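pls design
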């Protein structure tokens, strides 16, 4: 793979990959970006059953996710990720391992990963088998994501334009990891399959008839799913929990969204066009802080 890297390159992935700005509700990022956030009583409803002594609490995942094989989703995600790396390398937009920002992001991920299986988070047991990857792409887009199976990508725009501190970068990464850990993609695909009819789904699981196309198109479906506000709020909570346990200050979620508010002045970026304003998100984070600050207080801090 070509290791030449031009930090001024504008990574332009194949449109079939469905990549958009961080936070948007369309395609790939609709299911992964910081969204949700409800005012007043709505915010309280987004955080039922918080246990202040040991982090946030989440509900059991929907059984619909079991309708779709996790192995197939993760394999499709890995294939899409490899294709993205290939395209970025060809465009000289893939940062080498020696790049300081790559090393920084991987150091953050290394701290977060051990806390992705905290019992209260009810993460998928498959995460223990994942081969996590973190890569950086040269692009002015404010963008980051984690695909099923632990494939993480950051675009340089989110680091440079928002001037993210390590704490803030950990908030973004924790949120993205949470979508994968809680199998939001799998659940959404299961719901879609159920809607389209269990007969076709049954054929898909056995590779029969037209159902064979279902599994063949999993990669494309990963890029076109739309996730609910509840999924996004849950990812916020889980991400704050993981980052706090890893020693990153969860209050950085507030400064992160203040920066996003500044970035949205003038011509709002796409990631804000379909989401609640920053103040709503800040209120949601503040509602979660009592559950995660004790975790941060007793955690070993990064240098």
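designed seq:
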């Amino acid at each position: 793979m070509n290791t030449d890297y031009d930090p001024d390159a504008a990574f332009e992935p194949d449109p079939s990959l469905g990549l958009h700005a961080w936070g948007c509700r369309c395609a790939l990022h609709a299911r992964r970006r910081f969204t949700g956030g409800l005012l007043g009583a709505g915010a309280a409803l987004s955080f039922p059953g918080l246990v202040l002594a040991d982090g946030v609490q989440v509900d059991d995942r929907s059984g619909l996710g079991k309708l779709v094989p996790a192995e197939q989703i993760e394999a499709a995600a890995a294939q899409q990720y490899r294709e993205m790396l290939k395209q970025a390398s060809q465009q000289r937009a893939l940062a080498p391992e020696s790049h300081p920002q790559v090393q920084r992001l991987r150091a953050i991920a290394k701290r977060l990963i051990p806390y992705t299986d905290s019992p209260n988070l009810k993460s998928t047991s498959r995460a223990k088998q994942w081969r996590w990857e973190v890569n950086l792409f040269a692009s002015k887009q404010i963008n980051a994501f984690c695909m099923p199976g632990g494939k993480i990508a950051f675009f340089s725009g989110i680091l440079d334009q928002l001037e993210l501190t390590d704490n803030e970068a950990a908030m973004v990464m924790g949120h993205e990891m949470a979508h994968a850990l809680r199998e939001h993609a799998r659940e959404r695909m299961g719901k879609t399959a159920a809607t389209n009819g269990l007969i076709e789904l049954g054929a898909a699981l056995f590779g029969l008839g037209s159902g064979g196309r279902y599994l063949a198109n999993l990669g494309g479906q990963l890029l076109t799913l739309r996730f609910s506000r509840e999924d996004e709020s849950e990812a916020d909570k889980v991400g704050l929990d993981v980052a706090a346990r890893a020693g990153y200050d969860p209050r950085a979620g507030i400064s992160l969204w203040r920066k996003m508010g500044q970035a949205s002045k003038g011509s709002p970026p796409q990631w804000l066009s379909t989401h609640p304003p920053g103040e709503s998100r800040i209120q949601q984070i503040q509602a979660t802080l009592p559950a995660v600050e004790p975790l941060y207080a007793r955690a070993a801090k990064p240098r």
